[in-house]
Amino acid sequence: MKETGTRVIALGFFDGVHIGHGALLRRTRERATELGLRAAAMSFDSHPDTLVSGVPVPLINSMDDRAALMRRLYGIDDVIFAHFDRAMMEMPWEDFLGDFLVRQHGAAHLVCGHDFRFGYRGQGTPERLREYCAAHGLGCDVIPEVLLDGRTVSSTYIRTLLTEGQMEEAERYLGHAHVLSGVVRHGFGRGEKIDMPTANLAFPEGVLVPAFGVYAAEAETEGRRWPASVNIGVHPTAGALERPVLEAWLQGDCGDLYGKEIVVFLYKMVRGERKFASMEALKTQVLHDTEEILNYLKERNV
Question: Residue 70 and residue 64: Cα distance in Å, rounded?
């Protein structure tokens, strides 16, 4: 159990870690610096709506990617992932604040969004949070709605953009390029057959798969970034796979990547995935795509 009063904690699910979340996380970092405390964010291991409604919600990021984005972009020290089960769902809002956040996780100051709900049946509201904090000597900030082009910034809208392959628009709402990461696994050798060896990543269970197609991207491994041509899909030319994969062709001498962790930053969808008449035709198209991708990345100055 953590000592009481050691953290400023941002409250939310933070899927995608978009610019709306960024307003909470920046305030959390600022308050932590002012108070000499640790900046923390509290999230859940699965989306609450999945249990509440019984309908799975595809996630923009894995837990690891969510945590990495919060630390890298907003200087968050601690990311707390709570298990969202029936006991958590039915916890009274007062217990969520007093027992879980204050006594277990050392909250001295809490930050939430204007529409944040918590506790059994969402009975906890920002107004109740303010009242509880005032009565118990805790600090509190409630962050107003964040709009972009008159639209509320939301994970739901960003999921729609990703499934449509609108990466550049998604980046405006995220405030960063869409990120996917994982350990490079052995594929089926399709890339080697056309002298274009790829780093293959499986999509984690429950993580949203963007639109099938070819993307301008970068791949980071062991502290270095490489321009990359990325294909997301089932590889129909060589015989469709049962599950979609991400295949990244890194441009440069990056060595053997099998078993290494890579982070892929998706910038722009170049074209949709399609079936070609032959592997040679596919290779010709991939070379064309890669030239276009390298020109795009040069103009982007990445």
Answer: 10
